[in-house]
Amino acid sequence: MLSALDNRKWNWLDTFLFFMRTLWIYYNASWVIGVTVDPVNKWLLFFWFTAIYLVPLLFYRPGCIHLVYFFIAEFLLTGSMFIFLMNEFQMTGAYDFLYLPLIMFAYACQVRPLVWIGPLLSLVLFLTGTWVGDQFNETFIDMAINTPLFYMIGFCLGRVTVVNLKMKKLIDSIQEKNLALEQYSKRIEELTIMEERNRVSQDLHDTVGHIFTSVITSLDALPFVMKANQEEAENNIKEISNLARKGLDDVRKTIHQLSPMESHQSLAASFRQVISEFMKHTGTDVDFQIEGSEREIGERAKYTLIRCLQEALTNAKRHGQATQVFVEISFEDDALILQVTDNGAGTESLDPGFGITTMKDRIRSLNGVISMESEKNKGTKIRCSIPLVKEVVRT
Asked: Is there a domain that residue 376 lies in?
């Protein structure tokens, strides 16, 4: 705290005390030198008062505050002058010279050890001057009461400076923390926007990819159907139109962060709807089975698994040209497992694209595990596992 007081800036109280100290030196020097007869003593007193005024200012002035050195210089110079005046004049009026130095002592002595050294040395100075001036008489009690009041005034002024310094440091700290919070807030906002963009792009990829795969497959088959049966071709065109409209609705729901299925539907019902539409528009045979007793899971887990199923079916048709897909969901005690196996072309090395990467991110966000196996001309198997207990806690 002493270092903080030394490093503080010059304030209005410092200016006020400096002004009062200047008037005090001028008044007392004029009076003492004026009543001195010997010219040599006049010059000695002049230089003494000059030192009393200037030497403490070496350690206490704008841009340089060293309270310990100031206290020592002020105590030695003004204290010795007070004892000299008490010895020279031996009257109670000499106590007036001590009042302002006591204020300055107390103003500087705000921290340990000065907070107790200051009053102790001031008391020693007061008693020494009283003894030298032979003032242990009927006026001593009055002086013993009045003199400490000036020390208390200085101490209170010093406390004001200390409190102001603490308040300034507190305000600076609060402003610094507010600035840091603003920066964190902006960063969080940026991350939130980025995360939302990623979510929308992932959902649009899943939705649009699934729908357009079905639409493209149906359009590719349409010329052959038109040659074979005009009426069936017209029905297929209507189904493709309905599928495109549903895809538009899914895109809108994705933007509004809604699940592509009604929230009251079970996971199995949602899976059946996705599989039914996929089979209808791609002509791919999909076998769907449920292992274990189906139970309610969180909307987040349901939404993630539906998107993973769409991505797996889309990849099986688009990249693997699969004609048969096997989908199985298993409700175990502590986990839900989705497994999608196709008879497509397969590959020797899996190169995850945007859709697969998105699928992995979705599963991992639920503390789940995803694995993929593929072999040339033997199809691909995707297995997703989600811990049900953790999902229940979250929802």
From this structure: yes
Backbone phi and psi for residue 298, each to the nearest 5 degrees, phi listed first: -65, 155
Task: Give the structural domain span for 391.
Answer: 265-395
CA distance 206 to 247: 11
Write the CA distances from 109 to 1, 102, 151, 176, 186, integer angstroms.
12, 10, 10, 30, 46
Distance CA 113, CA 292 (A): 78
3-state secondary structure 123-160: HHHHHHHHHHCCCCCCCHHHHHHHHHHHHHHHHHHHHH
Q: Is residue 185 part of a domain?
A: no
pLDDT tens per residue across span 362-381: 888 888 999 988 888 888 99
Establish if 278 belongs to a structural domain.
Answer: yes
Whether omega for the bond prior to residue 113 falls within 30 degrees of 0, making it cis, is: yes
Residue 389 pLDDT: 61
d(CA 188, CA 139): 73
Question: 121-160, pLDDT tens digit by residue?
Answer: 999 999 999 999 888 887 888 888 888 999 999 899 888 8
Q: Per-residue pLDDT averaged across 197-201, rounded?
A: 67
Residues whose CB is less than 8 angstroms from the CB of residue 78 and which lie 6 or more positions away in sequence, other chains included: 52, 97, 98, 101
Number of domains in the chain: 2
**Secondary structure letter of residue 9 according to DSSP:** P
DSSP-derived letter for residue 58 is G
Supply 278's token pair: 């996929």
Structure-token pair, residue 225: 């159907």
Supply the angle between the helices 354-365 and 140-228 in degrees, to the nearest 10. 130
| Neighbouring-strand partners of residue 291 | 330
Considering only CA atoms, which of 185, 248, 187, 176 is closest in space to residue 215?
248
3-state secondary structure of 369: strand
Q: Are residues 39 and 153 in the same domain?
A: yes
